[in-house]
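Q: I'm building a small set of examples for a reading group on sequence design. Run inverse folding on the following structure and report the sequence directly after it, with nothing in between.
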């Protein structure tokens, strides 16, 4: 059995292992172990919608037929709940434009205050509530990550912040009623936040590491390979 607190040490770095089955004694219920998997919350949005027939089951109840986009979740059917017919008062027409209302109300349920300046007014988003919650975001080094495939105030060259509303309302995540959580579109920056050397924040060191295409993970690859020898296939995939 592998100790739960096992870490892989590299040059100036220590990476904690995720919860692996190999850390649990044989015949021990997961709920009775000293450490259970950390809960996660992920919110994914399609700004311009998606073909309903690919996502929404045609029938209600636990015996629904899988749609093409949900079929990958079939092995964990008992943990899947598909909810349809929801409505967001904050996104209803009347107080803003389609773009600003839809984006800002998605996770806040609030209507944006019309302003093109810094006098923003909306509300905290549900993901940021989770980020401050015991057992969720408070248990991780980075409480939340706001990621996007596109950024700025245009999509394919078309302005998306209009109608007299600040482009800040295009952010889905809000720390409070006046502070949006800007979305990150650069994978390299995200990788640096997760695996970069936080003890060395100099621009020169980061550039040198990027040039070598390396991170702190490269310093522990040999230890990972040795550890994999004694793990089951499921744990090897997770590692």
């Amino acid at each position: 059995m592998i100790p739960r607190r096992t870490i892989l040490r590299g040059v100036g770095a220590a990476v904690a292992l995720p919860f692996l089955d190999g850390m649990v004694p044989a015949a021990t219920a997961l709920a009775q172990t000293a450490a259970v998997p950390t809960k996660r919350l992920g919110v994914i949005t399609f700004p311009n919608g998606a073909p309903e027939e690919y996502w929404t089951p045609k029938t209600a109840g636990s015996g629904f037929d899988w749609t093409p986009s949900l079929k990958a979740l079939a092995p964990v059917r008992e943990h899947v709940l598909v909810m349809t017919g929801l409505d967001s008062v904050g996104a209803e027409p009347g107080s803003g434009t389609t773009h600003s209302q839809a984006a800002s109300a998605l996770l806040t349920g609030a209507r944006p205050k019309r302003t093109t300046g810094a006098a923003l007014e909306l509300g905290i988003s549900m993901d940021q509530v989770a980020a401050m919650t015991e057992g969720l975001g408070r248990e991780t080094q980075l409480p939340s990550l706001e990621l996007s495939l596109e950024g700025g105030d245009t999509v394919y060259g078309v302005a998306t912040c209009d109608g007299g509303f600040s482009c800040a309302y295009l952010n889905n995540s809000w720390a409070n009623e006046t502070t949006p959580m800007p979305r990150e579109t650069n994978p390299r920056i995200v990788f640096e936040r997760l695996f970069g050397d936080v003890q060395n924040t100099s621009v020169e060191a980061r550039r040198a590491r990027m040039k070598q295409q390396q991170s702190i993970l490269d310093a522990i690859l040999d230890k990972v390979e040795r550890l994999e020898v004694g793990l089951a296939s499921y744990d090897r995939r997770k590692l």
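The beta strands are 7-10, 13-16, 154-155, 158-159, 174-176, 179-180.
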